[in-house]
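Per reviewer request, we include the raw input and output of the structure prediction for the construct analysed in the revised manuscript.
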Amino acid sequence: METRLKTAARESSDLQTLLSEKEAELQNLEARHARDVKEKSKRHTDELKEMHEMLKSSTLEVSQLNAELAGREQRPHSTSELKKVLRDSRRRRADASNTQTLTLNPKSAAAKAREDAVRLQREVEAGEKEIEEGERRHKADIRGLCKQMQFLRARVGREERFREGLGYQKRWFLMEGYAKWYV
């Protein structure tokens, strides 16, 4: 009976040791789980902040692009529009020189008219440069399209000749009796 008590006591101490080890292991696992949850929530928070910043920058970029697009839509695009702007600038310059003679104070009016004339001359020159640039781009586009048309015509011609050759070969093989291989 004593031996049973000793073995039971030993088993009890072994079980208590095992229980304390398992409790320590459980505490370690709980601590590790808490750390993992904390790290994941921090990572998630950081990702949310980063996404929020990306959203802000994207929104800002979209608004800038919209503003740029609106500015481009207001500028004249075609040659006729640029010529119209040039005519308007010349007319304003002529009007400015006409008003110079009608003013009461000739010295200040003359200075103002000269400034207006210089400013309008710059506008006219800028308009002429834009027209020349547009015409140059237009000519380059036309040259590129002509080259592309030449290439496509040559390609079509090569394809037609190739098809004719294939048709000739097919007829020759059919006349020679090689038709059984094609079927």
